[in-house]
Amino acid sequence: MAGKNNPWGGSGKGDEPGGDGSSGAGGSGGSDGPRNPWLPGGGGEPGKRRSASIEDIFKGRGPEGPRRAGGGPGGPTFRLPERPGGKSWLPVIIGSVALIWVAASSVHFVQPGEQAVVTWLGGKYSDTLDSGTNFTAPWPINMVEKENVTQIRSEEIPGTNTEKLILTGDQNLVDLSYVVRWNISNLTLYKYQLADPRNALLEIGEAAMRAAVARKKLDEVLTGEGRAEIEQTVRERMQARLDAYRSGITVQGVEINKTDPPSRVEEAFKDVSSAQQDADAAVNRAQAIAQQVLARAQGDASEFNNIYAEYRLAPEVTRRRLYYETMESVLSKTDKTIVESGNVTPYLPLPELQRRAQTAAQPPRPQGE
Q: Which of 1, 182, 259, 281 has the greatest CB tally within 10 Å of its CB?
């Protein structure tokens, strides 16, 4: 390495052990060569900034001393831009956010067919808002809950694939299911009058249906006319009870979907129904025959009355005509001919003669048949 420049400063001879302290591993020796970065002073002149060593990096220190939590030696360096005049933008930002929050939570757009309930701090009732644009105090001072009051809601009782047995007036059981259609008529009463208005609707509907079916026989429940009467009765009773409770609910209609016998006796019920249908068919046939006989009798009586009226006008002529008509009716049904000749009444076997004539008229059969 003799004769070469020391990369840490000084001439090449200064890097030998025990060499001149001005150019050895200790100092710069006034040389213009590179500085030693591993030295505490960085090999630079006093007063100049040096680079941080590895130990400084791991110990959290900089060239000028320990770093602060906010950044460099002087604390945090991030600052908001200033407005003209040297004032801060922070109050403006806070005011804008507050204005947006007030506008967003104070203006409410209620759609047609909807109403909204306003409460103080989420608990005490304050007001009811109709459809349109409405204004309230910002959240959480005023809280708004919207509800569609024109929507027709349906409740199926007792639900899908569920059996509900109801006792009829003639002590029979019927598996009956029905649908209740309703809507909200008063949102304030609906929200705050009853603890659970939907459950109250279901309970009232079931009680009204059982009371209406208990006054009808099984045949009336199964027929269309009886079912229509039950539906009307149930709707009226439900509405009367809901109005008494001030529930804010209007029953739009009740519709019976199914009226079947219980599943355990369904086969026996089908047999009874079949026998009943056969009996009804026999009664209908008997009534039809009776009507035919009655019509025929009425026709004969009318004909007799007409003949009697003619007989009164000309008795002898009418008597003869009746005699001839009667004899014609009787003799037309016999195959005997009687010819009067003196005191002897010969008999002509006309049927035998006719049989012989028919036999002679038939062609002879071939032999061998």
A: 182
Contacts of 341 (CB under 8 A, 6+ apart): none
Domain count, the chain: 3
CA-to-CA dists, residue 5 to 16, 36, 63, angstroms: 12, 14, 28
Q: Could you tell me the sign of the dihedral formed by the alpha carbons of 91, 94, 100, 103, in that order?
A: negative
Tokens 């003869």 found at: 320
The per-residue pLDDT of the chain, averaged, comes to: 77
Whether 292 maps to a domain, the answer reads yes
Query: Would 34 be classed as within a structural domain?
Result: no
Amino acid at 264: R
What confidence score (pLDDT) does residue 356 get? 76
289 and 274 share one domain: yes
Q: What is the pLDDT of residues 98-147, one digit of tens each?
A: 888 877 778 888 888 898 888 888 678 888 888 888 888 787 788 888 89
Residue 281 forms part of a structural domain:
yes
Instruction: Please state the pTM of the whole predicted model.
Output: 0.50
* Domain span at 102: 92-148
Quick one: which of 334, 306, 336, 335 has its CA closest to 321?
Answer: 306
Residue 322 counted as domain residue:
yes
**Three-state SS at 312:** helix
List the beta bridge partners of residue 146.
Answer: 116
